[in-house]
Amino acid sequence: MIRRLSAVLRKEAIHIIRDPRTLTIIFFIPILQMILLGYAATTDIENIGLAVLDGDRSAESRELIRAFEATNYFEAIHVGSQEELATLLDKGEARAAMVIPAGYGQSILSGEDVQVGILIDGSDPTIANDVMASALQTGQDWSRKLATNLGQNRGLEIRPTVWYNPGLESVNFMIPALMGLIMQFLSTLVTSMAIVREREYGTMEQLIVTPIKPLELVIGKTLPYILVSFFAFLEVLVVGMFWFGVPIHGSLILLLELSVVFLLGSLGIGIVISSVAGTQQEAMMLSFLVLLPSIFLSGFFFPLDAMPWALDVVSYLIPLRYMLIIIRGIVLKGVGLPILHNEVIFLCVFCIGMLLLASVRFRKNLD
Fold first, then answer.
1. How far apart are CA 113 and CA 28, in angstroms?
2. Residue-wise DSSP of 121-137
3. Cα–Cα distance between 196 and 214 in angstroms, integer?
4. What is the pLDDT along the chain (367 residues), one digit of tens a residue?
5. Which residues on neighbouring strands pair with residue 228, listed in sequence order?
6. Residues 165, 332 contacting (CB under 8 angstroms)
7. Are 211 and 291 in contact (CB under 8 A)?
8. What are the Cα distances from residue 304, in Å, to 38, 39, 71, 259?
9. Largest alpha-carbon pair distance within the chain?
10. Coil/strand/helix, residue 265
11. CB-based burial of residue 349 (10 Å sphere; 0-12 exposed, 13-18 middle, 19+ buried)?
12. Which domains are delineated in the chain?
């Protein structure tokens, strides 16, 4: 029995050693997971963008702004109008906004009650709750300081208002993100084994002798998967809307159009992987290697604002980062192309680039 078992073990060990690429992937994935989770898995955020509309422009209002900045939690971005303030919140460049009313300073000095409005981007409930708690605490501390310095009880009151997701329901944040993640996961994974399957089944030679051009073949092989992946996206969209009750505040047509662009790029990634991998198993493992950074560095689980600068820079290379901004922007905020144009441009460039790269890689396989 021991001899037979030893023979099987020796055979499998030799098989593993003779497949160094798969062995490298197996050992590299845990290291990548630890690095990504170790640095990206945090919700501790500093220097949150705080759009400030100071309608008083007095010494007292400037002191209040400095009190918020002194917490190291907020970073003031001064704006001159309500429209500019709303645009910063729509784009996500500011997570909150403070509106100081005219006459604030005079009211403080005369001991009158005064309210300062805090508008909070509720699209991410985790960040929104932290912002609300920090804003209320800062307001209370500043009110006590005023009472101590001026010898009177000041009626400073912070009035928070949550935009986009007033109930701070996490399902409204996660379901749109799942739409993007499922699209990329499904389209990349199923396509990554397309060319590998041709090679393993011995039908690659038949493709070589056909007059089909590489780009035409890439499009022909990806089109069925586009339809399948798009149908899966529609399923998730319908379930999110009618089962989980996630409202879509923006243009559904725009969402569907941009989803097709993202699908094309993701399918291009799958074709590139399949042209590199030697077996279907290796193609699947390479797909997971590509998808892991997308999960952790796209803002799906962990806020981008909380990531170290190095990982934040890397995240700009992750297509899912931009797709999640687009989906959440359309679904939760109801914004359109004027706000999302940078993300849309990146998706189009990404899609064209991946399809061209897939065509080049496939041409090399034919040669």
1. 61
2. ETTSHHHHHHHHHHHHH
3. 15
4. 677 566 656 755 665 566 666 666 666 666 666 666 665 556 667 778 999 999 999 998 999 999 999 988 899 999 989 999 999 999 999 999 999 999 888 888 887 778 899 999 999 888 899 899 999 999 888 888 877 776 666 567 889 999 999 888 888 898 888 888 888 888 888 888 777 777 777 666 666 666 766 667 666 766 787 788 888 888 888 888 888 888 899 999 999 999 989 988 888 888 888 877 777 778 888 888 888 888 888 888 778 777 777 777 888 888 999 999 999 999 999 999 999 999 999 999 998 888 888 777 766 555 5
5. none
6. yes
7. no
8. 14, 11, 20, 22
9. 95
10. helix
11. exposed
12. 48-163 (3.40.1710.10), 169-366 (no CATH)
Q: Which residues of 306-329 are buried (b: 16+ CB within 10 A; e: fewer)?
A: bbeeebeebbeebbbbbbbbbbbb
Q: How far is CA 79 from the centre of its chain?
A: 26
Residue with tokens 């897939």: 358
* Residues whose CB falls within 8 Å of the CB of residue 210, separated by 6 or more in sequence, listed in order: none
Helix axes 319-328, 337-366, angle to 10 degrees: 150
> Which three-class secondary structure state does DSSP give residue 193?
coil
Query: What's the rounded Cα separation, in Å, for the pair 79 and 100?
Result: 12
DSSP state of 111: T
Dig out the tokens for 141 from the structure.
């501390």
- Residue where the block lists tokens 């041409």: 363
CA 225 centroid distance within chain: 24
User: What tokens were used for 320?
Assistant: 């899912």
Q: Specify the residue for token string 């690429």.
A: 21
pTM: 0.84
Distance of CA 231 to the CA centre of its chain: 22
Tell me the angle at which helices 194-201 and 252-276 cross, rounded to the nearest 10 degrees: 40
Q: Facing residues of 119 across strands?
A: 97, 161
DSSP per position, 6-46: HHHHHHHHHHHHT-HHHHHHHHHHHHHHHHHHHHH------
CA distances from 99 to 28, 76, 79, 298 (A): 50, 12, 10, 31
To which H or E segment does residue 119 belong?
A: strand 113-121
Query: Which of 36, 18, 39, 42 is closest to 288 using CA atoms?
Result: 36
